[in-house]
Amino acid sequence: xxxxxxxxxxxxxxxxxxxxxxxxxxxxxxxxxxxxxxxxxxxxxxxxxx
Length: 50
Fold this sequence. Notes:
Blueprint: H1 2-13, H2 18-21, H3 24-47
Region (Disordered): 1-23
GO biological process, one term: negative regulation of cell population proliferation
Membrane topology: Single-pass membrane protein
């Protein structure tokens, strides 16, 4: 259920064309930032206890 909403948000961010106008470096930096956020969320979900 969580993965569906994550893919929907990623699809929504692809509609902006500002990242493609910055060139390959901007796209690469954006992808690295996105992966960092996803990694942090996964770590929080795995380490979260009641």
